[in-house]
Design brief:
Indigoidine synthase fold; 45% helix; globular; alpha/beta; 289 residues
C-alpha cells in the first residue's frame, strides 16, 4: 500500500471522521486547526489522517481537508472496506481502526480520538462489534481516548479488550471512562498519574508487543454530562431509532443524531471538550517518545 506520509518522529495522528461526520461542516476547518495547535503546543507534530482520491494520506494539507469537507458525500472507512475506497480512488474519512492502520504504516505511534467503537448491547437486530477492537490486536499504536462511546455496552467492551489481550491504562483514573461520563462500572489495568511515567510505559509496551494500547483519559469534569440526564436522552434516542427502523451500521449514527437533538447540542459540546483533552495528552506523550 502506497501512502502519502508527511509524519515526523514525534507525530500525533488525528482522524477525519470527527471532522467530516462528527461536527457541522462549517466548524470542521476551525476545529482541525485548533486540534493541530494543541498538539503543536505540547512540542509534537499533528498529522491528520484520511483518504484523498484513493491515496492514504498521513498529514493532510488544508486543501486536502477542504476536498473532503466540500465533497457531496464522504464514506467512513473501516479496516474491512478501506481497500475498496483505495481501489476506486475515492475520498474516505478514517475511523479509529483505519486511522490506526495508516498511522502504523507511517510509523506514527500515538493517536488522539474521542471514543472507541465497541460492543453493542444486543438491542434487537442492532447487536454489533466494532472493528476498532480488533485493530488493537494488529497495529501497535497508543490511542488516547475517553473510553468507549456511551451508547454502547461499556462493560462488555472492556471485557472484549481484556479477552483480546489489549492493555487498558488510565491517566489519573482507576475507572474505564464512558465517553460523555468520566466513570463506568469497568476498571483499567493500571493507573498512571505522571505523563513521563506513562510515556515510558507506552514506549516499553509498543516495543514489547505488536498490539496497540488504550490510554483512557476521562472527559474533564467541566464537560461531563449528568448521568441521569444522559440516561433520559439515550432512552429517547433509542426509541427514535427503533421507530425509524434504523438497523446495522445505521443504528449508531441514528442514535447519536437523536441524542444530539434531545440534548440541545450538549453532547456535541461534550465531545469537542473531551477530544481537546485527549489531543493534549497525546501531544504530551508523543513529545516524550
Amino acid at each position: 500500500m502506497q501512502i502519502v506520509n508527511r509524519s515526523r518522529k514525534n507525530s500525533v495522528a488525528l482522524e477525519t471522521t470527527l471532522l467530516i461526520h462528527g461536527v457541522p461542516s462549517n466548524s470542521s476547518r476551525s476545529l482541525a486547526h485548533e486540534l493541530a495547535g494543541i498538539v503543536d503546543a505540547q512540542g509534537a507534530h499533528p498529522v491528520l489522517v484520511g483518504v484523498v482520491d484513493g491515496k492514504p494520506t498521513i498529514g493532510m494539507t488544508d486543501d486536502e481537508l477542504d476536498a473532503l469537507i466540500d465533497a457531496p458525500s464522504v464514506p467512513k472507512a473501516n479496516t474491512g472496506n478501506l481497500g475498496v475506497y483505495l481501489k476506486r480512488k475515492s475520498h474516505a474519512a478514517t475511523t479509529v481502526s483505519t486511522t490506526m492502520e495508516l498511522a502504523h504504516a507511517a510509523g506514527v505511534r500515538v493517536f488522539a480520538t474521542g471514543g472507541l467503537g465497541g460492543v453493542h448491547s444486543g438491542y434487537g437486530e442492532n447487536w454489533d462489534v466494532s472493528a476498532d477492537l480488533m485493530a488493537f490486536t494488529q497495529f501497535p499504536v497508543a490511542v488516547v481516548t475517553s473510553g468507549v462511546k456511551s451508547i454502547l455496552d461499556v462493560v462488555s467492551t472492556r471485557e472484549a479488550l481484556e479477552t483480546l489481550g489489549i492493555p487498558v491504562v488510565g491517566f489519573r483514573t482507576d475507572s474505564f471512562p464512558a465517553f460523555y461520563l468520566p466513570e463506568s462500572a469497568a476498571g483499567v489495568d493500571a493507573r498512571f498519574d505522571d505523563a513521563d511515567e506513562l510515556a515510558d510505559y507506552v514506549r516499553f509496551e509498543l516495543a514489547r508487543t505488536s498490539r496497540g494500547i488504550v490510554v483512557a483519559n476521562p472527559i474533564p469534569q467541566e464537560h461531563a454530562l449528568d448521568p441521569v440526564q444522559w440516561d433520559e436522552w439515550l432512552t429517547l434516542a433509542k426509541d427514535r431509532a427503533e421507530q425509524e427502523h434504523a438497523r446495522g451500521r445505521a443504528w449508531t449514527p441514528a442514535v447519536l443524531g437523536a441524542v444530539h437533538e434531545f440534548s440541545g447540542g450538549a453532547t456535541l459540546r461534550a465531545n469537542i471538550g473531551l477530544v481537546k483533552s485527549n489531543t493534549t495528552l497525546a501531544g504530551m506523550l508523543a513529545a516524550r517518545l
